[in-house]
Prior knowledge:
Radius of gyration of chain A: 23 Å
Structural class of chain A: alpha+beta
Strand content of chain B: under 5%
Helix content of chain A: 25-40%
Number of domains of chain A: 3
Oligomer: heterodimer
Shape of chain A: globular
Number of helices of chain A: 14
Number of domains of chain B: 1
Radius of gyration of chain B: 20 Å
Helix content of chain B: over 70%
Number of helices of chain B: 15
Largest sheet of chain B: none
Strand order of the largest sheet of chain A: 5-24-23-20-19
Amino acid sequence: MKFSQYDPGQFYDELYEGTGQPRPGSKLLLRKFASLPEGELKKRQQAAERVILNMGMTFGVYGSNDGHEQIFPFDIVPRIVEPPDWTHIESGLRQRLRALNLFIDDVYHEQKILKDGVIPSELIYSSKGFLNACWGLKPPRGIWCHIAGIDLVRIGDGRYYVLEDNMRCPSGVAYVLEARQVMKRTFPELFDAYRVRPVDDYPSHLQDTLRYLSDLPDPTVVMLTPGMFNSAYYEHSLLAQKMGVELVEANDLAVIDGYVHMRTTKGSQRVDVIYRRINDNYLDPLAFRPDSTLGVPGLMDVYQKGRVALVNAPGTGVADDKAIYAYVPKIINYYLAEEPILPNVQTYLCSERQDRAYVLEHLDQLVVKATNEAGGYGMLIGPQSSKQERDEYATRIEADPRNYIAQPTLALSRVPTLVDDHLEGRHVDLRPYVLYGREIYVLPGGMTRVALRKGSLVVNSSQGGGNKDTWVLS
Amino acid sequence: MLSRVASSIFWLNRYIERAENYARFIEVNLNLSLDLPRGTTEQWEPLVATTGDHEAFLARYGKATKETVIQFLATDAANPSSILSCLAAARENARSVREVISTDMWEQVNRFHLQVREAVSRGLSTQNLHVFLTDVKANSHLFLGITDATMSHGEGWHFARLGRLLERADKTSRILDVKYFMLLPTVAEVGTPFDIIQWSALLKSASALEMYYKRFGRIAPDDVSTFLILDATFPRAIRYCLIKSENSLHAISGSEHGSYRNQAEKQLGRLRAQLDFGDHEDYVADGLHEFLDRFQGKLNGVGEVIFETFFAPRPIHNTIPASESQ
């Protein structure tokens, strides 16, 4: 295979700065690849896939009817992030999480930001993530969003932009941990040569973040999952295992004498902190959806009395509403009096008359997203859409403009990816994980999602995307 | 330990043990039929009868031949006790308690399941059947070894052992029962070399031949039954299984031996005591098959009270996914 002929094309390439020209941090990797015998990379890719199969690394896809589980698609060419880039990303993420937490707290208390006219009130009240049950709530330690996964993209100018804030139950960190395991088995010699910052201690940081929320010296922490039919079940069990905490389902929990308890073989045991991977609306059938069988009746009442901590707090969805996203630069400015370190992607709000008109005119060039959807669902990619799809979206936008935003179609950066026996550029994004406990911690790494189909810009695993390991160098 | 978790560990181990024993079932019949004198036809229906799933089999297949019986016991996804189904169920249970078991245990269950699935999709033939059965047994032993070596011998481990040994006690009794159903060409053949060959094939299927010889030296039908039912040190003997199961129950609830705190301990203790003070007269009087039948009924009763005592009944929700998928 000719690595000297790899052509980054018109895109920003994470490993190459020009045809056959590796970036400084990638030289060693590409030299190593070049030194491997013909066919060896493909062999290692297959070996990695075998490891993944044996590890049982799977994810579920909603809407697929056969057994749910699919093997995690993975590419063995890592993404490399050089130290200065990482320092920049890290400070930008800290800033963003701080500001968004102040914003959520304000929204459920004094609403200064609305009174000062920085954000229109109707945008907040019409957000599906805004919960009346959270009015005046004081979450433990004053933190609302403890765990965030913030999606970044890099485009042609080489700068990182924030594409989405995931402030509810961001998933994927298990794949970061497992991808590293797979890579260590696949290229042990590279880990000797490179100084890749480790990610394996994420579960212990996560546990510190969770334990910090209780005043007890030895609180009982549990992880609440909707169960093994959930698409992210693999991650729930992996994190519980690596933290050594119980993985519970709603039926294992009950409110007894004003506290949350879990049912054990030796009777009931009090629970102090719950890392819940259940949607706000399903948490407590008494407070939210009465038809939820996944929730714990009375949980919100215990939470409001400060007798159990929930992570993340309910109500954080208001901060990752895709229409409110457009205001995050202003939010940062308002609460911190700072300029955003990581810029937003230009966003058109369909609720605004002028923006809407522009969006409807340019549907073939824009990416349209439903404000409350995630996982690549409810999305129109203009340049790759049919006339019929565009018409459909136009009707939807006009019927419910608040529910849609649009962004320019971004020329996402690419990373060389193994296709048969050679490398081809494939588009990627990056989701780093941020924890907010005693202090803010950014995991040095993250989920690099890659659109494995040639030319595709959709990186979601539910839509033909795969993953790569992310190497943050030290 | 969560009741749901305890239940899943218990069943994970029961299913693995069941798969192993189904491999042994098939093996015992293969061995027996290979040794049949010329002119006698192979008997496969008795094997189905011993599993207790006779009706389900007849409804699905009608006629018992070597092919249909092996398919039913090994590869039939519609038979909840087939080797394939056991592995699928074991893996699902393991997946639901991944945070409690070690990664090595999980990976072994996952690999075991994959191997069985691949073997089934390739198809079982006379040539590869033996290899398949040997692999199933070896994989089960590997899982057991990994469990012993990587899981703390605490509550979870005791539920694991409880599940495994109760299942094994039941299946050893059924392996012994195969001989009852396996008709000799004539009554006159009892005690003949041919009869002896069958008994030793049966011991072999329970991996018991060498240990049996060490204790009794020569094959005699009553001694084989005594060994597989009453031996206290051979790990596949029924009494051994009950002694260790009872130990695990006491370790779980913290009660003293000779006492009981719950119905599970009471019923298992009684059943074990019957064997402690039993001898071959017990099953010679009414007949071995009747004895085994009664035993299986009582053991089922123990399983039921364990369920009531430790695993509160709980529905499994397979509803609309409600977590965020961000």
